[in-house]
Prior knowledge:
2 helices
Amino acid sequence: MNLGFNYKGFDLGLLLQGVSGVQGLLNNYAGFALTQNGNIQRWQADGRWTTANPDRNAIYPRFEQLPSTGTPNTLLSDYWLLDASYLRLKIYSWDMLSQNNWFPNGNCQVYASM
């Protein structure tokens, strides 16, 4: 999406990029704690099911050591699908048209691409 504004000698241009309605699958290290003796992410540790937190809707199943063959806790299901929609600012452009002699050609432009 291109957006452009101009006001009293100032021009602003933005290019936004994104998608909506997309789902991403958390798997391997991103989704499964202790995969192949790997690390644990904070959200996995804080929201996991435990005997002290027996919430049926815990955000992560109980911890277990995962062998390379997987377990019932790593079967693919819609539990591991998350919203992957995003919007990012890709290009930013700012122009200033000067009525004085600040700039040799009468204008200045700042441009950034991300």
